[in-house]
Write a structure and sequence with these properties.
This protein has helices at 2-14, 17-47, 56-79, 81-105, 108-125, 128-131, 141-150, 152-166, 176-193, 211-215, 218-248, 253-268, 271-281, 283-303, 307-334, 341-369, 372-377, 380-395. Helix 2 (17-47) packs antiparallel against helix 5. By secondary structure, the protein is mostly helical. It has one domain (15-196, 210-395): Up-down Bundle (Growth Hormone, Chain: A), CATH 1.20.1250. It has 18 helices and no strands.
């Protein structure tokens, strides 16, 4: 017990207020996004002109996130993290209010417009994990990143709870109440963001190494492909899950919320120790472990025909995502100099969310035209790419 307290004390010596405030803001940001992820495909199915367009608004969010990540990163390098983080919070909240109005009026176009604002805003909150590493010693950067992402564990309970209690809050406008509360909750994050103090990174005329030189590094290739491929597969399967659970299997809203909740718990609960595991066993082994979890997901998801089996598949998917995303992001941070942050982090997240956008957009179409079993099998080629990237780097 004494050893545990000593380890905690040692860690909190490094834990500064920026990490605490970013983790706190992440709770509300992820709660808002969890509500959005659970709800958007179902809400889209209600008001979309065609069934296969049901996940288009969610895909639109990922596309705008992809497009916005690089400009967002460059703006942070020029004006600082805080201003851009606050702009992102306002964008997400405004998008939530628009989507509330869209569901009341049953207007798919306005719903998509709200999704655009959500996507733009979400691109800034992605950089919370990078910001957490900038004012702590290099030795604990993976832990700082993990701690900020672990805030998603609280969001895993808040998001589904708010979704269940607010889905039919507005009479004759299913899910409108969920988006209204999402918009309000997102604004709470601003209280914590205004208190962070992160210096603007130094800008040199030559801006560090050439971009192509950085991204030719085998370890950088491994990090980007692992994070992008891992996030893409997670988005692909998670986006289609509510459609499978409610529209095909005819399970209840409550069962859908529970499955997504445990998925999100599995995504972020490991964050409490993923950083420590990286320090102890190396990032390479963590990435390989993430791949193994994903291969197990394919087997369980393909055979699933009960709520518990879908829950297990999504739970394993969450753990695999955590190892691949944090492991890949840790490599990106460790290989980047301060003056290169704007370019490298922006391009990396552009690649990551480009993959997520394609995966999310294809999920609705694949589920609608092929069905759950075949779309699960189609995730294997992306897994193979991640495996090859890691094998190539190991040989090098």
């Amino acid at each position: 017990m004494m050893r545990l307290f000593k380890n905690l004390a040692k860690f909190f010596e490094y834990l500064n207020k920026n990490v605490f405030f970013l983790a706190s803001a992440q709770v509300f940001s992820m709660t808002a996004m969890n509500i959005n992820i659970i709800t958007t495909g179902l809400a889209g199915f209600i008001i979309a002109p065609y069934g296969w367009l049901s996940t288009f608004p969610l895909s639109l969010q990922f596309i705008l996130t992809m497009i916005s990540t690089f400009p967002c990163s460059i703006l942070m390098s020029k004006y600082g993290r805080k201003k851009i983080f606050l702009a992102g919070i306002i964008s997400i909240s405004f998008g939530g209010f628009l989507m509330t109005i869209a569901l009341i009026q049953r207007n798919f176009n306005i719903f998509c417009l709200g999704s655009i604002f959500l996507g733009i805003g979400h691109s800034s909150s992605l950089f919370y994990r990078y910001a957490a590493t900038e004012t702590v010693p290099k030795s604990v950067q993976p832990k700082a990143m993990s701690l900020v992402l672990s805030a998603g564990l609280i969001a895993a309970f808040l998001g589904p709870y708010i979704y269940k209690m607010s889905a039919d809050l507005v009479l004759n406008s299913l899910y409108a109440g969920s988006y209204f509360l999402m918009a309000i909750i997102q604004l709470i994050a601003a209280f914590f963001i205004i208190r962070i103090e992160i210096p603007i990174p130094p800008i040199k005329k030559r801006g560090g190494r050439k971009t192509i030189e950085i991204f030719k590094n085998p370890s950088m290739i491994r990090g980007v492909i692992s994070a992008a491929g891992g996030y893409g597969i997670m988005s692909y399967l998670m986006t289609a899950t509510p459609l499978q659970i409610i529209n095909v299997c005819k399970y209840s809203i409550s069962e859908n919320a529970s499955i997504i909740q445990w998925h999100v718990i599995a995504m972020f609960a490991p964050s409490f120790f993923t950083g420590s595991l990286i320090q102890r066993f190396s990032v390479e082994r963590i990435l390989v472990t993430g791949i193994l979890f994903y291969l197990l997901v394919v087997v369980v998801a393909f055979l699933a025909n009960t709520p518990d089996q879908y829950l297990l598949a999504l739970f394993l998917l969450g753990i695999g995502w955590n190892f691949l995303y944090i492991g890949g992001s840790s490599l990106i941070v460790s290989l980047t100099k301060p003056e290169e942050q704007g370019r490298v982090q922006g391009i990396s997240d552009l690649i990551i969310f480009g993959t997520v956008s394609i995966s999310s957009l294809s999920a609705g179409l694949a589920h609608y035209t092929l069905g759950w079993d075949k779309m699960v099998i189609y995730s294997l080629p992306i897994m193979l790419i991640i495996i090859l990237a890691n094998m190539i780097n190991i040989k090098k």
